[in-house]
Design goal:
Structural class: alpha/beta
CATH class of the largest domain: Alpha Beta
Helix content: 25-40%
Bound molecules: 2'-monophosphoadenosine-5'-diphosphate
Mean pLDDT: 96
Distance between the termini: 34 Å
Length: 271
């Protein structure tokens, strides 16, 4: 019987995940079906549990349900526990296992596709919402010289940083004005400011020579990427991360990691 997977979210109609996983399945010769599952905002758990009760093998979880998914699963693996967010669920018999592949997807895109070395570099993560939670631990594991989390509401950044603080970790949180006079080799935008064409108030001199500005949004030149470009930084959008986090989920479900480059190229041509 064909194994069934889906992306669950609200909204979910725009999700590229079905195309990505269908491409992975073709490429690796795997027999699976991957669909979209719209959950009512107040009924994530029942919708997800029904999918699994009817034989579903795995779910990707997108906005706004990643924290609810973290609460729902029977066990959390790897970075999912500390992220308090789950974006990939695998059914193991009657148990649901929660993973978070967002951070590994970001790091894979940075390292494999963009050739970035994180170790020893100064990294700024903008935003302390859902999109930031999954990426703090995998970034720290690469041992940057410093990881600074900046957020419009500094308290939220503080809380996020506190969760990951530990010996030997140069991790700090602040508001945007406190960034004045500092520069970074890698700046990752995990805010949703770009959705409304806005830009967090960033100081000039934020980028070191040769720095990369990375926006988790994809398919458009956000105000952040335009700001970075105008200041000489290299830029990248989040399309590679989207495909890499999907490849990590595919690996968890199917035991094989698909080639991502052809799928990134295919999506790039379409956006
Ligand atoms: P997501 O799951 O996409 O991260 P979220 O949890 O609502 O969504 O978080 C959105 C993030 O973008 C937050 O860090 C938010 O800052 P606040 O915590 O201060 O709200 C940030 N954000 C949204 N709009 C912004 C703007 N115009 N300028 C700066 N930061 C913004």
């Amino acid at each position: 019987m064909t194994d069934r997977y889906a992306v669950i979210g609200n909204p979910v109609g725009h999700s590229q995940s079905p195309q990505i996983h269908e491409a992975f399945a073709r490429q690796t010769g795997q027999d699976l079906f991957y669909g979209r599952l719209l959950a009512p905002l107040d009924d994530f758990s029942d919708t997800a549990l029904r999918f699994f009760a009817e034989g579903g093998a795995g779910l990707n979880v997108t906005v706004p349900f990643k924290h609810e998914a973290w609460r729902l699963v029977d066990a959390r693996v790897g970075g999912a526990e500390s992220a308090e967010a789950v974006n990939t669920i695998r059914r193991e018999g009657t148990r649901l296992i929660g993973h978070n592949t967002d951070g590994t997807g970001l790091v894979a895109d940075l390292e494999r596709n963009l050739g970035i070395v994180i170790a020893g570099r100064r990294v700024l993560l903008m935003g302390a919402g859902g999109a930031s939670h999954g990426v703090v631990q995998p970034l720290l594991e690469r041992k940057p010289a410093a990881l600074v989390i900046a957020n419009r509401t500094p308290d939220k950044a503080e809380q996020l940083a506190l969760r990951f603080a530990g010996p030997g970790r140069n991790l700090r949180a602040c508001g945007y004005t406190a960034l004045a006079g500092e520069s970074f080799d890698l700046v990752v935008n995990a805010t949703s400011a770009g959705l409304s064409g806005e830009l967090p108030p960033l100081p000039d001199g934020l980028f070191t020579p040769g720095a990369l500005a990375y926006d988790m949004m994809y398919g458009r030149l956000t105000a952040f990427l335009a700001f970075a470009r105008a200041r000489g930084a290299a830029t990248a959008d989040g399309l590679g991360m989207l495909v890499e986090q999907a490849a990590e989920a595919f690996l968890i479900w199917r035991g094989v990691r698909p080639q991502t480059a052809p799928v990134i190229a295919q999506l790039r041509a379409a956006v």
